[in-house]
Amino acid sequence: xxxxxxxxxxxxxxAVSPITLRFIDTPVIVDNSFGIECGFIxxxxxxxxxxxxxxxxxxDIESKIESPWLNYNSSEVVISSAWTSNVxxxxxxxxxxxxxxxxxxxxxxxxxxxxxxxxxxxxxxxVPDEHQIQSSINWLDIAAHQLQTAVVWIDGQDQESxxxxxxxGFVVDDEKSIxxxxxxxxxxxxxKYRPPVGKVTLRFNxxxxxxxxxxxxxxxxxxxxxxxxxxxxLIDANPPLPNIDFKIPIEPQIRRYYLMQxxxxxxxxxxxxxxxxxxxxxxxxxxxxxxxxxxxxxSRIDAQRAHNELLLITxxxxxxxxxxxxxxxxxxxxxxxxxxxxxxxxxxxSSSYRLPISYTNTVxxxxxxxxxxxxxxxxxxxxxxxxxxxxxxxxxxxVGNKSPIDAINEAASQLGCMIxxxxxxxxxxIIPRWPTVPWEMATAVxxxxxxxxxxxxxxxxxxxNPLCDVVWLRGEQQGISAKVKRTGSAGNIPAADISAQxxxxxxAARIAGTNALxxxxxxxxxxxxxxxMVDLPPATPGMLIGIREGAEVFKGTCDxxxxxxxxxxxxxxxxxxxITVIRSIA
Length: 586
Prior knowledge:
about 575 residues; mainly beta; 13-stranded mixed sheet; 4 helices
């Protein structure tokens, strides 16, 4: 045997001497060579077959539906499906549905009536008989009424639905209600434009050169306007209040004697705390925008509680607001009095309660708009009565370092107007100093008429003044120059010229000139003392007062008014009002 030589051409660093050779099996030497033969054999087993066979087959699967609307021939539905594989294997599934020969439901409802009231509902399936629904309702009546409804379909036999209603009994009367009269009050809202009554005048105070002719006026849609309809038909069942021109004069009834129970109370408005007073005096004239108030308290405690407080004084049921601003006291042997003077609630707009303001209308504003600007953030409102509103150019009116009420009073004085304050509603009303001019008093209806039965004191005096029939007016920085002449006069006796900031419009010149002419001429000043009763309320400056002398009534304007109430030591209450009436006698 020749030697076997082992050659290692690549070193193996991990080898450790000595190297051991292991031969697992004796190799087969072929052709004098040394080698290793490896063989891998896979055994091919017999064929493995995997078969998934889904077989579904249905025979004689029937679904039959019969109804009165279909033919009586049976309807058949057969579902057959089958899947096969290489291996012959079948799976059969059969499902059968079976209906009973007759399925029937009867419902019967009975009511306790003179005749049985029966409703029968019958439904039949899978039967060749006719399918019929019949409802029978019986009522007691005299005559019999029958209502029959027949429905026929083409694909089946004639089917019939019969409804019979019978009435038997006696006649029952019926009652009908008809609503008549005016319709109910309601709110009516509409966006339909409501033009003002009378002629509409458009004034363009500045030329617009960039606008070519013709000028196109565009009016935006009117906002939603709502008003209260108080009901009624063609003749209103609830007529609204009469307009300003329709006056019903106040005149107390003439009696042989008058029984009165005077009352006077005073409370603090903030907490309704009663304040005891022993006397009260309230007065106002046409030149005042607030009433003057004088109070005398029963004790020092009441005077302290009323200091700088808003008080509500009630005299014979009529309410007056006052602020006790300036307290005073006096002492004598066994006598101590505490009193205070003040003004009405309109004093809230004066400099004592409001900082002075300076105002200039920087843009075009109306007279009402200027007054509204002066009352801004005060809680008070204002309106014009008997004065047409007019436009004031920008920068025409200005006031400086004045309280709101003083600024408004200045604007009203330039037009010959005055201020009336409603303390309860915190509202200012701007009216002319002469709501009724002297030359129109003969035909005017007085607001208040008094007679000898209620006049407790009467005095008169005459003041001489020249009677003028024309006046010249002009604006200051801006405005117009106008001549106001009394209608029907010669216009040759002029009054003193008037120059004011607000004479910027013909309407402003007319108001100021008319009041200036009304101040001229001889005047009769009449002072009256009157009680305060239910049908004789306190007068107001500017009222047209009628004084009846027998069958004649002469009229004048209320220039000033005052009321006095006092309580004696025995508890007797004495209340009296005095008015001064100016009557033109020229």
